[in-house]
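Quick check before the chapter quiz. The format below is the same one you will see on the exam, so make sure you can read both the input and the output lines.
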Amino acid sequence: AIHLHPDDVEDIYFTGAISNPQKTDFFVEYRGQDGGWHRYTPDFVIRRKDGRCLIVEIKKAHDREHPVDGENGAKAMATRAWVGLNPERLKYEILFTESDEVGFDQTRFARHFIEE
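Here is the expected output.
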């Protein structure tokens, strides 16, 4: 295994607060409960210098079963399908938290992605 240093991270983008689609080119389209297409901008994108990216979404634990925002909701399923087109370069993770904070143990996947 190749061990990367955090300096090998190209950038970390916070895209989750973008409500105007004109402000980003990064989004995943998903079919909403209304049958129409909608844009989903995940919370973070971690981009390594080798071009691999990790897409990270953070949600409250009570949203885990939500039909749109949940673990198997429309947004997650559309993103997983997109990641499946190029799984060597793209990864996706949803973190569910009981509070307003993400615990250190919950960042294990992201830390591994940076270091692998």
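If your answer matched, good. The radius of gyration is 14 Å.
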